Amino acid sequence: MPAHTQAEQEGRRSRMPEPVQFLPEMVEIAGPLHKVIQNGVVPRVTVSLMHLRAGQILGSTYFTIRETANLREMGEPEERITAVATWQDAAYYSDAERVALELVEAVLTPSPSGERVPDELHAKAAEHYDDRALWTLIMAIAHIGFFTPAALIAKPIPGMPPGQNYSA
């Protein structure tokens, strides 16, 4: 009889099984993408704040729980974690973090005027980040984009580590 994960024992299940067993090539893509966004050019906290905001925008419990846990592990105060949804008027973020949050919102939110990232936003980001850091921010957003279909369709188990977050 196969061993059941803690999540399965608690009745939490994903919609689909672990994707790597069907597509082992995913590791060749996901691993280097993780490495890029953890290159130290942009603080890990900033990337996690961006990913938390992306999870909120996308309606992904998996992303929001994962990034909330990551931020807590990094020692971030609860006020900074819980205020991400209202970062525009919360006093807890640096100007650089604000522009990173603004970028992720711009990319993930449809714009009635067409262009999601106007020149003004790019210029504001360039005031705080050099080209390498901007590319790191772009890849942090791409990272969420890469995993969004899995998070929303396959529904991995929130709060479970990779490799243990699929049960079906």
Rg over CA atoms, rounded to whole Å, is 17 Å
**Overall average residue pLDDT:** 91
- Number of beta-strand segments: 0
> pLDDT under 50 segments (min length 5)?
1-5
- Number of domain modules: 1
> What count of helical segments does DSSP give?
8
Strand content: under 5%
Give the topology string: H per helix, E per strand: HHHHHHHH
Question: Roughly how many Å apart are the termini?
Answer: 15 Å
In short:
The protein is mainly α and 168 residues long. Helices cover 58% and strands 0% of the residues.
Structure description:
The protein is mainly alpha-helical and 168 residues long. It has one domain: AhpD-like. Helix content is 58%, strand content 0%. The N terminus is likely disordered.
Which SSEs are present, and which pair or pack?
Elements: H1 6-9, H2 26-37, H3 44-58, H4 61-73, H5 78-82, H6 95-108, H7 119-128, H8 131-154
Helix pairs in contact: 2-8, 3-4, 3-6, 3-8, 6-7
Identify the notable features of this structure and list them briefly:
168 residues, AhpD-like, globular, disordered N terminus, mainly alpha, 8 helices, single chain
